[in-house]
Amino acid sequence: MDETPVRVSRQMLKVLKMMIERPLIPCSGAEIGRQVDLGSGTLYPLLQRLENAGWLKSQWEKVDPSEAGRPRRRLYKLTGRGQTLAARALAEVQMAPGVLAWGS
What we know:
Blueprint: H1 10-20, E1 27-28, H2 29-36, H3 40-52, E2 56-60, H4 65-68, E3 74-78, H5 80-95
Antiparallel strand pairs: 1-3, 2-3
Helix pairs in contact: 1-2, 1-5, 2-3
């Protein structure tokens, strides 16, 4: 886990908002991308930065691909630290003067 500060971008705020609304439910990258309308080229590096910083943890889905009829998915979930830092980042943006519709 890296203690380097994470630069919080608009795209990251969208991901954090979605994940903090359901902190106990692991989500696949594809599901996150659909929910926040981000392409894989933006989303996966962002998820990797959050995981490296300790905001997220991920693990492979426990499913047999041949039985499921699809590949396993990588599931992402906020850590306790990530929940705290995400809530703080979202609160800071909501309190910032002149910020309009950052999540849209």
